[in-house]
Specification:
single chain; mainly alpha; 2 domains; 3 strands
Length: about 170
């Protein structure tokens, strides 16, 4: 499913900006007419009004773009926090469970569906010794219960595999 394109300006804000540009054009045109035809009040008044509109619309555009960028940064930060939370949940499951139903694992890790979870499970390296028995994932307890370098390396490898899967955009809700 393609991601919805994010826009800086809504339709009404875009129309407002077009209106600003039209007012600016009218102000500068009337100011030019005033200077060329010797109408003193027409020239300076509209020139100043045009400059005020240019400055105010420039400030408005700057603020909108800055807020749009901040919103994007906040969304990225929230997504990274979500991924970190999922990885923590996965680590806790590995260290505490002997086996877990695929439905429960999908729910705990916030996968869209069991198929995405099974795709990830298939991508786990065989040396980590995870396997499916019926509708349950069997976790090799002897590999993950001991506090050894081998256990820590296995967990780190599994977490890297999970992170790579996430970075490909699979399994997200």
């Amino acid at each position: 499913m393609p991601e919805k394109r994010k826009e800086i300006f809504s339709n009404s804000e875009f129309i407002l900006l077009i209106g600003f540009l039209l007012v600016i054009a009218i102000c500068f045109t009337l100011s030019w007419v005033g200077f060329n035809f010797g109408i003193p009040y027409l020239n300076w008044g509209f020139l100043i009004a045009g400059i005020i509109f240019v400055i105010s619309s420039g400030v408005y555009i700057y603020i909108k773009i800055r807020n749009f960028r901040k919103k994007g940064d906040i969304e990225k930060l929230q997504e990274q926090q979500f991924l970190n939370e999922r990885q923590e949940v996965l680590k806790k499951i590995i260290l505490r469970y002997k086996s877990i139903k695929v439905d429960e694992l999908a729910s705990l890790l916030s996968f869209n569906d069991k198929l995405q979870l099974k795709k990830w499970l298939l991508s786990i390296p065989p040396e980590l010794e995870f396997y499916l028995e019926g509708d349950e994932l069997v976790i090799p307890r002897e590999k993950f219960t001991q506090e050894s370098d081998e256990a820590n390396d296995a967990i780190e490898k599994l977490m890297r595999n999970f992170k790579d899967f996430e970075e490909k955009g699979q399994g997200k809700m």
